[in-house]
Amino acid sequence: MSEDRLEVDRDALVRCIAACEVLAADMQDLRERAHRELAPESFGLGETHLRSAAELAARFRATAIGGPGVAVENSAVGTFAAHERYALDLKATFEAALARYDEQDAATAHRLGRL
Questions:
Q1: What domain of life does the native source organism fall in (predicted)?
Q2: What is the pLDDT of residue 114?
Q3: What is the pLDDT of residues 79-94, one digit of tens each?
Q4: What is the maximum alpha-carbon separation in the chain?
Q5: How confident is the model over 70-85, as a mean pLDDT?
Q6: Which residues partner with 2 through β-bridges?
Q7: Cα(107)–Cα(80) distance, integer angstroms
């Protein structure tokens, strides 16, 4: 900040937007992978014929994707989804700041061109 002016690095905003896109995509991939790999139909623990193994498998599955005793937002899938939403929200904030910066920059250039 210079005296009463806020200075913005446009390139830094563009890089932040791109980084948020990458983070959101990574979180989406991890969310999908967690759903696919951490909650299979069968863990191979003997859950088809042992009640204790079935209970353990259900607990693993719930921890991965939500279920009895584990809210979705407290599961691995829910955690990755929350991080994905946060990255997208942050990206939107940076995009809004960039749009305002560009509007202000264009207005300033227009005013200077009229002098």
A1: Bacteria
A2: 54
A3: 999 999 999 999 999 9
A4: 85
A5: 96
A6: 5
A7: 40
Phi and psi at residue 5, to the nearest 5°: -115, 140
Contact predicate 24/88, CB 8 Å: yes
Q: Which burial class, exposed, middle or buried, applies to 53 when counting CB atoms under 10 A from its CB (0-12, 13-18, 19+)? A: middle
Distance between CA atoms of 18 and 3, rounded to whole angstroms?
A: 30
Give the integer Cα–Cα distance in Å for 20 and 43: 34
User: What is the pTM assigned to this prediction?
Assistant: 0.79
The per-residue pLDDT for range 44-58, each reduced to its tens digit, is 889 899 999 999 999
Residue 112: CA count within 13 A, CB half-sphere: 6
- 95: amino acid identity, one letter: E
Residues in the chain: 115
